[in-house]
């Protein structure tokens, strides 16, 4: 009887693992949920980004759209084995600004909140918009306890206008790949 039980457990484990991997791949193919808000001064794109660190997030403004790429990593826990690998590791999101939008992409900021949201603020401008803006932003992490004090006035660690996408002090912590994506650090 124990041989049949062992076969059943092995089969069950294989099914769980394959279903989990399929769920992770499906999550990776689904764009990140995003809300686009607007007031008189700026646009605010709010992406769902649960379980990520600032160093996992890459944000850029490209031709009238905010693009987000998240590369998460699973931690290994000693004494545990993976039974159901269901979380996607590479997630993407994009939101188009309205066609008439005039923004200052160089002054945009990105803030990763403790509640698992990524807020990208893009100030409006009256100046003509350059068509070929491709800027990378660095993501700042903010504790919810400090959020009231910092709210949306939080000092960004970098702005989109910086050539490297980071402040000079943090330039050693960032790598840019061939696609123009810039790794953000906390």
TrEMBL record:
Renumbered residue ranges of the record's region Disordered: 112-186
CDD domains named among the record's database cross-references: ACD_sHsps-like
Comp. bias regions, Acidic residues: 128-154, 164-186
Family named by the database record: Belongs to the small heat shock protein (HSP20) family.
InterPro entries associated with the record: A-crystallin/Hsp20_dom, HSP20-like_chaperone
Species this chain originates from: Halosimplex aquaticum
Chain ranges of the SHSP domain: 23-140
Protein's UniProt name: Hsp20/alpha crystallin family protein
One protein family per Pfam: HSP20
